[in-house]
Specification:
The complex is a heterotrimer of chains A (66), B (382) and C (275). Chain B is of the alpha/beta class and 382 residues long. Chain B is built from 14 helices and 15 strands. The radius of gyration of chain C is 18 Å and the shape is globular. The chains are: A alpha+beta (66), B alpha/beta (382), C alpha/beta (275).
Chain lengths: 66, 382, 275
């Protein structure tokens, strides 16, 4: 069974610093009401840079079965 | 394995302190050289590795108590020893041990002060620092041995109290006792009552206490329970809190765990107190001079009783209050400018006249000085 | 819901953490967790020791044996734990003030002993918890609430200090170069001796604001552009290096470890192996 990665957000953790948005190479994210929001998931290359630089663990890639 | 092959030995107070500590299970020592306590570090460095224990000479007094606390957190009975200036430096981490509830024994072989003072003449000037040295309200247990034998016996009790109540215990020696040499009996481990900390956590919460209990049962690090220890006020999981109610409850519990069990902690000695007009209150190495004066009672005709608080903190208040009701004069003899004197005055109130003999010049108080003072007290009373 | 990594290594019921928006400490704390995860360490045998300050709040969030101690003394506490249980992996999370000012003496003596501890300094160049005073790593000329006219002190180069004092592994990471920083922490833990990792953090609230560094994103961009590898740095002139921060592994020369040496004493004088 092949595994895929899914982009997940935990809004309760987000403090709106904007790192994930600024350093996303594919313009996937935006800030809505001071919280990270997925603007365009189709652009996402699952590179994981957002997760690595999120100081608040509010955005991450998780393996999903599929 | 028995810690000692000979049951009787000629030892110095400082050496007896180490032997007693080893007998009760001390297996980690961290310290920094300072006279007149250095023999404690020296003997620990020889003896600990022989028993599989560890000794480390740290870079300063602060790191010495810190390392000892670290080892205790990992489940090893730990001790540090120092003298006046070093005792001042250790104060912050004594408070840490109190709030984090980490067992540790801190030996202070008192010397003349303030500051470097008269290195290293005898003194008993750290009695109040033992109680109030670290900032904030906190529980205190302090024990003051009077001889080499009592050093051996009382350091064992100090460890037991520290383990049982999960609190720092201050072992308040002085230069007189530390450097005194006597033949003593080294009661072996097998014959001792040894108390080890209770590590059976309540409801999986490291800082939780049972109903009408005051002491938590945190496990040692590395035994499979992952939790936090902090010097901040904390909840039952050990996580910091700013909640005023929780801070109140925790602060109160810390004080209560000593207050409620004070009868198990307090120890004192009374000599000839049944029928005396004058009572000497004295502790630690100065007791020798008082006993010297006592030996000469026949020759001097002076009759007096002695009250020796072996547990200095919490002070044996009830016993002294009771004695004061039937005694006219109380003479406090201590090697300072009047520290326990204040406590005695508070307890005795107007029951008796409280007199004082003390000094801060670095010389010991002699039996002659005590006899002279007693004669003065008696003549004023007539 | 948090990620699997966070769920496994942090006390998620305590999140979100207390650090300000854009604070680099959260990134660095995740780096430590990721390094522990990569090394497959048994969590029961990992202890995190911290001192006092913003950095040191990390311990409380991390789901290992955690000891949040007094200001500057983390390395001394850690020394006691390591002596008592040499089989334990002991990691110290500290700050620039905690490790290099009030705790500077413990740092150099830990290095000197080469005791197997891994020190990760969350270095934000300021005293954040107390409101932005200058620290031993605030660059000369920069401002703090106690350096209103510019800091006249020189700043420590912490990995150089650690190496000179005897550390057997020294490195510097940052918040931008995450995989590198994780690797440096991993290598530090793997080194059987005293390891020192200067992890450059980001403090937008005090250090950034006081020194007009812009917001968190500007500060992250600064690390992107100015944190350069040693190989790159070797090709630059002194002038070109002026606003650069060299990152990567600086020193990795194992030597005999302290608790091992102590064990040889115990073996020699007839003590048992386990206390």
């Amino acid at each position: 069974m092949a595994s895929a990665k899914e982009l997940c957000i935990e809004p309760a953790y987000c403090k709106g610093c904007g790192y994930c948005i600024e350093f996303c190479p594919a313009d996937v994210l935006e800030l809505v009401n001071d919280k990270v929001h997925i603007k365009n998931i189709d652009n996402c290359t699952k590179c994981g840079l957002c997760e690595m630089r999120c100081p608040d663990y509010a955005i991450y890639l998780e393996e999903v079965e599929g | 394995m028995a810690t000692n092959r000979c049951r009787f030995k000629l030892l110095q107070g400082n050496e007896a302190c180490v032997e007693g500590a080893l007998a009760v299970g001390m297996r980690f020592y961290a310290g920094y050289p300072i006279t007149p306590s250095t023999e404690i570090a020296e003997r620990s460095s020889v003896r600990l590795p022989q028993l599989g224990g560890k000794f480390i000479q740290m870079e300063d007094e602060i790191s010495s108590i810190a390392a000892a606390l670290g080892a205790s957190v990992a489940g090893v009975k730990s001790m540090t020893a120092t003298s006046g200036p070093g005792f001042s430096l250790k104060q912050e981490n004594i408070g840490y041990a109190a709030i984090a509830e980490i067992p540790i024994v801190i030996v202070d072989v008192q010397r003349s002060g303030p500051s470097t003072g008269l290195p290293t003449s005898p003194s008993q000037g750290d009695v109040m620092q033992a109680k109030w040295g670290t900032h904030g309200d906190h529980p205190t247990i302090a024990i003051s041995p009077t001889s080499v034998q009592s050093t051996y016996n009382e350091i064992i009790r100090a460890f037991n109290l520290s383990e049982r109540f999960r609190t720092p215990v201050i072992f308040l020696m002085d230069e007189v006792v530390g450097h005194m040499r006597e033949g003593i009996e080294l009661i072996p481990t097998e014959e001792l009552e040894i108390i080890d900390r209770n590590e059976k956590m309540i409801n999986g919460l490291p800082y939780a206490v049972g109903e009408r209990e005051y002491i938590p049962h945190m496990p040692s690090f590395g035994t499979g329970s992952l939790y936090n220890i902090t010097g901040l006020f904390h909840d039952d999981e050990g996580f910091p809190t700013n909640d005023n109610k929780m801070a109140h409850d925790e602060g109160l519990r810390l004080m209560k765990k000593i207050e409620v069990y004070k009868d198990d902690i307090i120890k004192y000695e009374t000599i000839d107190t049944d029928d005396c007009d004058t009572l000497i209150v004295c502790y630690g190495g100065t007791m020798r001079a008082v006993l010297g004066a006592k030996e000469r009672a026949k020759e001097t005709g002076l009759k007096f009783g002695i009250f020796n608080p072996i547990t200095i903190w919490p002070f044996p208040e009830e016993k002294l209050a009771e004695l004061s009701k039937k005694i006219k004069n109380i003479l406090v003899v201590e090697h300072n400018y009047g520290q326990i004197l204040l406590t005695v005055q508070r307890i005795v109130k107007d029951n008796s006249n409280v007199h004082f003999l003390g000094k801060i010049d670095g010389t010991t108080i002699s039996p002659d000085e005590i006899i002279k003072k007693l004669q003065e007290v008696n003549s004023n009373a007539q | 819901m948090p990620s699997k990594l966070i769920e496994k290594h942090l006390r998620t019921d305590r999140l979100p953490h207390i650090w300000c928006p854009g604070c680099g400490h959260g990134i660095l704390m995740r780096d430590v967790c990721q390094a522990i995860d990569n090394l497959n360490l048994d969590k029961d045998m990992v202890t995190i020791v911290s001192g006092i300050g913003c950095s040191s709040r990390a311990a409380g969030y991390m789901n290992y044996n955690t000891l949040h101690t007094t200001h500057g003394r983390a390395i001394a506490f850690a020394t006691g734990i390591k002596m008592a249980k040499p089989e334990m992996t002991v990691i110290v999370i500290t700050g620039d003030g905690d490790a290099a000012a009030i705790g500077g003496n413990h740092l150099i003596h830990g290095c000197r002993r080469n005791i197997d501890l891994t020190i990760v300094v969350f270095n934000n160049n300021t005293y954040g918890m107390t409101g932005g005073q200058y620290s031993p790593t605030t660059p000369t000329g920069e401002k703090g609430t106690t350096a209103p006219y510019g800091n006249i002190d020189g700043a420590f180069d912490l990995p150089r200090l650690a190496k000179a004092a005897g550390a057997t592994y020294t490195a510097r990471g940052d918040c931008y170069h995450v995989p590198l920083t994780i690797k440096l922490i991993e290598n530090g833990i793997k080194n059987h001796g005293f390891s020192f990792i200067d992890a450059t953090s980001i403090c937008p609230t005090y250090y950034g604001r006081k020194n007009k560094k812009g917001g968190p994103i500007d500060m992250m961009h600064w690390q992107e552009k100015n944190c350069i590898s040693k190989t790159k740095a070797d090709k630059l002139s002194k002038e070109e290096l002026e606003d650069k921060l060299v990152i990567g592994e600086f020193y990795n020369e194992p030597k005999e470890e302290y608790t091992d040496l102590y064990q040889t004493i115990i073996d020699k004088v007839g003590g048992k192996r386990n206390v």
